């Protein structure tokens, strides 16, 4: 067979995907956007263990492997999918080769994928099972053109539609189809292949393949061969046979057995008469007995029904008890770990209680929060809330490991974060030197990602209500982790409503509608986040800034200087001016977050968009919320900044009047969904 010339292109939706080519049939993507792991870490060990199992499991003979291994944030999820014509030993060999190549080329990325001719292998630190994923996608096409592109494309489209329907109707072991279609006298035969990961439903497989097939004109219009690959499905077509016979699966145990008919028509008629004569009386008797049984059962329904409900509730309670038991620490273990809650192990004191450093018998370092004893919750409510909060897992949240109940003692056990809290660095004249602008900007974005998860992406919608610098912990790489994000649920149940009579938080960070009226929402957290941004940029506490002989609160100071076109005065003098535009943009975002009217404040989705898109024009903020409510702004006198320095070639921002920017205020249609 003559050599086939191919062109390829990879469509990347995100800048953190790294593309590696190992040859014409092997392509690897290393995803830096889902975090990295280090050699000999728990995640690394779990990954190697899982991939070894994946490529050596002899119990699976149909070419689809989906396993997970590990616990909590170190859990690894992997999928291996072989082409439907691969024998089990060929499949495992392909997966094993992919395992070696993938871990060598992506040595520390927690998420990666590799496609080859015979198989696909992918893994992630987030679940990928039963998830229809459309990106990244990869195109590959033959450089040769069809003689009659119009007719070729028409025949190809019909072939792909037929294969799509066949593959989508497959069972949970395989969704795969191949076929050939003669295109007429002017063309060679077209050979086609389509495949989905069989964990997709029929509808999801159909939807995925529809999307892939619709990309053929973009990828390989009029070409005699091409491939479109996605994580959840793929297609390929050629004018030569590139696949073998589909391997045989054992009969689906859920499918009904095939029926046979070997009787003649006369025998069938006689059998029908006999069946009617026997079955009809039998059915009548059976229906009578069923009615009698239901009548007697109904008479006893009031007595039997509660018993049944109690049994079902007992089964559910037993499952919950097992979950709770796995999270509950022995009090003596925690007491010994913290040296009986000694002052030498005390890390800090907050509104909800003191925090202690501890060391478990296995050597793991933990942080223990000893809650105040004035909680209004019962033990059962408290346990249920712990189970919910433990499920919240994000790299920018401090991980809750479990709890302990002993008499009136209520302890929460967290992962230990070594670098103390943000306020320890940002407000100390000596320590703040360790936080250059790059680190500060990373901290701002990390906090925003954590809040976005709490507000929109987690199983629960959590409103923090006490977001402040001392509740932002920093790990070894100075990555921020939000702490105390479950306190409102774990301690004060009445605060989970839209209004509360018990205000918990820190003045200066509180939104005015919460501090004065007890109304809270996600926009309350946005206000606190805005104060944090201004503190991080300025290196000053929100409580007050020396302005000659007068003291001025941070929000007033920032607003006054921004309105006068002197926003650079807000920036911490210890920072160099290399990233001035980025700093000024953050001040602008911070002022948008602390506006008095909560409707005017952006949500966390829009804030992430503002932080990631430097060319997006920002709306003009209104005067921030002052508790004295001295509203003296005059919009025509205000100025806004354009931070897109690429338009001018200068590092200096451009001043524009508010009137020029009035129609640029809306970004509510820019949700990155």
UniProtKB/TrEMBL annotation:
CDD domains in alphabetical order: Gnk2-like, STKc_IRAK
A Gene Ontology term for the protein's cellular component: plasma membrane
Domain Gnk2-homologous: 25-128, 134-242
One biological process term in Gene Ontology: response to oxidative stress
Catalytic activity of the protein: L-seryl-[protein] + ATP = O-phospho-L-seryl-[protein] + ADP + H(+); L-threonyl-[protein] + ATP = O-phospho-L-threonyl-[protein] + ADP + H(+)
PROSITE patterns registered for this protein in UniProt: GNK2, PROTEIN_KINASE_ATP, PROTEIN_KINASE_DOM, PROTEIN_KINASE_ST
Record protein name field: Cysteine-rich receptor-like protein kinase 29
Lineage of the organism: Eukaryota, Viridiplantae, Streptophyta, Embryophyta, Tracheophyta
């Amino acid at each position: 067979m003559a050599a086939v010339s191919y062109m390829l292109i990879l469509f990347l939706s995100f800048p953190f995907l790294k593309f590696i080519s190992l040859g014409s049939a092997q392509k690897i993507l290393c995803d830096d956007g889902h975090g990295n792991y280090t050699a000999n870490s728990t995640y690394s060990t779990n990954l190697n263990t899982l991939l070894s199992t994946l490529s050596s499991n002899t119990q699976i003979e149909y070419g689809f492997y989906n396993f997970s291994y590990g616990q909590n944030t170190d859990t690894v999820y992997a999928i291996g999918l072989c082409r439907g014509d691969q024998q089990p030993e060929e499949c495992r060999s392909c997966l094993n080769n992919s395992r070696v190549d993938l871990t060598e080329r992506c040595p520390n990325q927690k998420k990666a994928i590799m496609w080859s001719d015979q198989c696909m292998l992918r893994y992630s630190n987030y679940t990928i099972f039963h998830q229809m994923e459309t990106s990244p996608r990869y195109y590959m096409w033959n450089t040769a053109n069809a003689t009659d592109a119009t007719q070729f494309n028409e025949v190809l489209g019909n072939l792909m539609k037929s294969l799509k329907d066949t593959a989508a109707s497959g069972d949970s072991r395989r969704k795969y189809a191949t076929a050939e279609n003669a295109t007429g006298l002017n063309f060679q035969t077209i050979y086609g292949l389509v495949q989905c990961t069989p964990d997709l439903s029929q509808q999801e497989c159909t939807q995925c393949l529809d999307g892939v097939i619709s990309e053929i004109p973009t990828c390989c219009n009029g070409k005699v061969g091409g491939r479109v690959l996605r994580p959840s499905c793929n297609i390929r077509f050629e004018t030569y046979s590139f696949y073998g016979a589909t391997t045989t699966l054992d009969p689906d145990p859920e499918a009904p057995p095939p029926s046979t008919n070997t009787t003649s028509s006369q025998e069938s008629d006689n059998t029908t008469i006999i069946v009617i004569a026997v079955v009809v009386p039998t059915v009548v008797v059976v229906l009578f007995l069923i009615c009698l049984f239901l009548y007697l059962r109904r008479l006893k329904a009031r007595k039997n029904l509660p018993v049944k409900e109690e049994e079902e509730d007992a089964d559910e309670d037993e499952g919950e008890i097992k979950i709770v038991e796995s999270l509950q620490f022995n009090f003596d273990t925690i007491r010994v770990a913290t040296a009986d809650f000694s002052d030498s192990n005390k890390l800090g004191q907050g509104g909800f209680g003191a925090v202690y450093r501890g060391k478990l018998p296995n050597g793991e370092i933990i942080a223990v929060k000893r809650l105040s004893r004035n909680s209004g919750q019962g033990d059962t409510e408290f346990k249920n809330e712990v189970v919910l909060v433990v499920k919240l897992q994000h790299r920018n949240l401090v991980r809750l490991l479990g709890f302990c109940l002993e008499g009136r003692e209520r302890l929460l056990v967290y992962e230990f974060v070594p670098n103390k809290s943000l306020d320890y660095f940002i407000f100390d004249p000596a320590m703040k030197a360790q936080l250059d602008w790059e680190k500060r900007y990373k901290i701002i974005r990390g906090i925003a990602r954590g809040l976005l998860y709490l507000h929109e992406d987690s199983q629960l919608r959590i409103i923090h209500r006490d977001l402040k610098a001392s509740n932002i912990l920093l790990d070894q790489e100075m990555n921020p982790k939000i702490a105390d994000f479950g306190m409102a649920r774990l301690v004060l149940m009445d605060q989970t409503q839209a209004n509360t009579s018990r205000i918990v938080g820190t003045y200066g960070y509180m939104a005015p509608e919460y501090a004065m009226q007890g109304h809270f929402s996600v926009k309350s957290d946005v206000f606190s986040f805005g104060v944090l941004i201004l503190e991080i940029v300025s290196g000053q506490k929100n409580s007050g800034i020396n302005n000659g002989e007068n003291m001025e609160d941070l929000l007033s100071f920032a607003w006054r200087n921004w309105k006068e076109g002197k926003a650079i005065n807000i920036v911490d003098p210890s920072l160099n001016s290399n990233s001035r535009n980025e700093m000024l943009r953050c001040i602008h975002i911070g002022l948008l977050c602390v506006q008095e009217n909560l409707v005017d404040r952006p949500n966390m989705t829009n804030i992430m968009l503002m932080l990631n898109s430097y060319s997006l024009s920002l709306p003009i903020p209104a005067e921030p919320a002052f508790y004295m409510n001295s509203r003296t702004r005059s919009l025509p006198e205000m100025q806004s900044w354009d931070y897109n320095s690429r338009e001018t070639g200068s590092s200096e921002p451009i001043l524009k009047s508010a009137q020029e920017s009035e129609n640029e205020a809306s970004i509510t249609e820019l949700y990155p969904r």
